[in-house]
Structures are given as structure tokens and as C-alpha cells.
Amino acid sequence: MPPATTDTTRERIIDAAEVCFARFGVAKTTVEDIAAEARLSRATVYRSVTGGRDELILAVVLRDLRRFLDRLAERLRAQRSVRDAVVEGTLDAVAYVRERPAIAAFLVPEAAGHMQAAVAQSAERVLATCREYVRPHFDAAQRRGVLRAEIDVEGTVEFLFRMITSLIVMDRDRDPAELRHFLHTYVVPVIAAPPTNNTAL
Q1: What is the pTM of this model?
Q2: Please, which residues have CB within 8 angstroms of residue 146's CB and are 6 or more apart in sequence?
Q3: Which of 25, 69, 115, 169 has a CA-to-CA distance to 145 between 20 and 30 Å?
């Protein structure tokens, strides 16, 4: 059997990190835990992931984020309006993260302390991935006049990212109808143009 390629080994390590983050929590997971889960030596993990645990946190987050964005594209195409797309996309993002302990742990207070530097360094990469994904849809909708003309994709993605994080961290036990009402009342007006010609993204 041929030796594993670098890419294959790295994916194996990222898979193991995701399992360990869910099992032990992000803050308590060590490189030794990840190496044991991947059935690799600690030296192999360090050779494959030179940034150590912090790099693995970011790798897990970005991989799951891309999976979510691919699925979200299909969901948003089914929405009849920008307003519905903003609301349903936000709800999907909140539900997606809550169901994944490794990603949720990255956003809640457990990610403070010695993880603070990793979170700060990762935030811009996460935002950049979201911005590049939504930019074509955003630009097209803005040309059609269904998004506010004065907003830009960078600020809008950051605003939604902060809103999604807040809804995860500060869960007020709203039922889905209450949360939809909250988003339609306070979030949608920040992004969508007045509902005169508001069609899908």
C-alpha cells in the first residue's frame, strides 16, 4: 500500500481534530489527542500542520464553513425575496453551528483565554471566505436595486457574522416564529431595499 500523500495526511489530521474538538472541547484538546485520534505520531502532525493546534482550529472552521456555504446556496435560490433569503439564511447558519460542537465551541466563551490569539487571527480568514462567496450574489442583487445602494459586501458580511454569533452565544429561547419576527424587524431593514421590487438574490 503506497504511503499517504501530504494532502491525505492533512485531511486525516483535520478529521481527527474535528472529532477531538467535539469530544473534549476546543480549549482542552491537545495535539497529542489529535495525533492519537488520527493514529499518527505527534511528529507527523507537526510536520503536516506547522501552525499546530491553532492552525487546526482554523482548518476545521473553514472546511465546515465551505460545506455550509455550498448548501446555503441551494437554500437561498429557493427563496422568493431578499428579505426571506436574509432571514432564512441567518436561521440556517445559527442551526448549522449549534449542531456542530467543534464550531460552536469556537464562538462561545470557551474560546477565550489562551485561545484568544487563534480566534483573532482566524476571524479575518472566516470573513474573507464568506465575502468572496457572497460577492457575486450581492453585486447582482444590488444592481437590481433589491439591496440598499449605500452598503458594501464587506460591511454586510461582517454585520451578519456578528449577528449570527450573537444569536448563538446569547440564546434567548425564542421559538422560530419569534426569531423570524426579530430578524425581519431589526436585521432585514439594514440590508434590503424598501419592499417595492424585492426579488430573490
Answers
A1: 0.68
A2: 81, 82, 192, 193, 197, 198, 199, 201
A3: 69
